Structure prediction request, 237 residues.
Amino acid sequence: MIKGLLFDYGGTIDTNGLHWAIVLKRAYAKQKIIISDELFNNAYSYGERSLAINPLVQPFHNFYDVLLLKVTEQFKYLSNNALHLNPADIELIANDCNQFARDTVQNAKSILQELSNKYPLVMVSNFYGNLNSVLKEFGILGFFEDVVESAIVGVRKPNPKIYQLGIERLALKPDQCMVVGDSFTKDIIPAKEIGCHTMWLRKQGWEDDFEHVVLSSKVISDIEIHDFSEITGKLLA
Prediction:
C-alpha cells in the first residue's frame, strides 16, 4: 500500500526523462556549435564539478542563473581545449534550456497537483542549494511537504541515505513509499536498496553502457514508464 511519494527533480520533472546533457547539447546545436560527444560530455562533467565544488550558485538564484553558470563553465572548458566560441551564445543556450524546462514543468504541474491531493510528496534531489527558489519560481513548491537537497543535507545520490532522509520527512516506512526518478543508478537502485517501491521514468539517460547497468544490477523497478504523464494512470487508476 503506497502512502507517500518521493520525487527526483532534475531529469524527471524538468525534462520528462531526458538527461540534462542531452538537452544542453541540443541547445548547442541550435547555435551551430557542433562538437563531438566525448568533448561535450567532458565539458558537461567539468561544469557540474565546478558548480559542486565552488560556491557559484546562491540560494536566491533562479534556474536561468544556474544554466548561465553551467554553460559559462562548459565554455571555459571548451575554450581551454582550443574550441573558438562566441561568448554571446552562452545566454542564448541558457535561455533555450530555461524555456524548455519551464514548458516541461508546466506540463507536469497538473499531474503533481493531482498526486498531491492523494499522497504526501517529498522532493529528493542532487542540486546546488537553490532548489526551493527554483521550485517556487516554476510554481510547484507548494505540492511538496518537504525538499531534501544534496547541497543542504550533505548527502548525494546514489547514496541511499538521501532517500532515507526523504522517508523520514514523510514519517512512513520504506515499503509504504514509492520513488519516482529517471536515473536507474541514482534513483532506482538506492531506493530499492532501502526497501522502497520504484517507478522508473525510462526515456533517454546518460549512463555509460546503459543496458549493461540495468541488466547487471539485478534490480528490477516495480513500474516502468516512458512519459511523466503516465504516473497518474499507474497510481490513481
Notes: The chain has two domains: 4-18+104-235, 20-101.
